[in-house]
Amino acid sequence: MASSRITELAVIVSLNTRKVTDYLESNGMPTPSFSIDAPLNLGIPKEAVEIDNARRLALAASIELHDLLQGPSACLKPVINGTSLNAIYIYDIASKLKEDPKAMDMAGLMFDECWQSMARTVDAMRMFKSHEPNQTGHALAHDTQDNMFDWLGKHPEKARRFTSAISTLVPTGRQELFLLREFDWASLGNGTVVDVGGSSGGVSIQLAKEFQDLDLVVQDLPEAIDGAAEKVPVELRPRVKFMEHDFFTDQPVVAEAYLFRAIFHNWPDHYCVKILQKLVPALRHGTMIIINDGIAAEPGTLDLLSERNIRAYDMLMMTLFNARERELDDWLGLFTQADKRFKFIGAQSPDVGTMGVITAIWEDR
């Protein structure tokens, strides 16, 4: 008699949980707990790929097991804990206990911006037939004609909270290391790399440390780079510069490469095409375009946990920005629409459905 799916899932949870537990115990690390002094995450290092995969397998199987044991009907009636969490945020209850400012900022972003916006997203889809970034669930929920970035610019405290919360979501660690290793930065020689929309310059600082022949120019809006130069290590300041620039205007710096990290997924396709086209005045034959952004997998090709995360993030991008996560063919389409002289080279990611490295070269001969 064939085993049932719930039995199979229980075995997957058990086997992979044991792998994680054995790893934590053998390395003297605490086991997961909700106690007040427990660590905020498991602390599995980026090098322990097999253990992190085991963790994800256990999570994915436990989610499916949970849903199957509830049954299809109960899955349509999820118990939402938003009211109690919202009260914790509004009345600042968490500050009376152990503080985590970024966790509070994330809670505020979810309750004040995201949840209200999600409730109006279908309304926006009905009302607006275009894909403008100010015709969104967020715009309806907050009664504004501005896109989210312009709206944040008029609300400094919300902008601060948004930046703080998003800093916990932008992938670092193994995926950031992947960016440094996947592209042959040394091939640029004594060249200049422009980090377009690079905010405080974290990635550029890492590149300057690793590749001492490179000069880095970090471009962003004034409020994004305010005070960033003072945080660059003194020994790197001659090679890491900051410059005010709006990437919807012509690129003023001629460079060997242009890096876009976590930029395009915030904008609809026709805006992404415009961003690429604004590079053209500065491009020379052989200039490299390096995009570090999500490469979504085709539906049905990932484990349940990864699939849910990607689709949820995709819908959040639509809710807030009228943007989306893109599959590989979508990335190819952006280059083709922008200018036929952009030639796609390749795309790689450390894991399916995660932040990858997409490269293209400018060929005008």
Automatic annotation (TrEMBL):
* Keyword annotations: Methyltransferase, S-adenosyl-L-methionine, Transferase
InterPro entries listed in its UniProt record: COMT-like, COMT_C, SAM-dependent_MTases_sf
Name the Gene Ontology molecular function terms of this record: O-methyltransferase activity
Fetch the Gene3D superfamilies from UniProt.
Vaccinia Virus protein VP39
One GO biological-process annotation of the entry reads: methylation
Pfam families this protein is in?
Methyltransf_2 (PF00891)
- Domain O-methyltransferase C-terminal: from-to ranges: 152-338
Q: Which domain of life is it from?
A: Eukaryota
PANTHER family listed in its UniProt record: PUTATIVE (AFU_ORTHOLOGUE AFUA_4G14580)-RELATED, STERIGMATOCYSTIN 8-O-METHYLTRANSFERASE
Q: What is this protein called?
A: O-methyltransferase gsfB
Q: Which gene encodes it?
A: gsfB_3
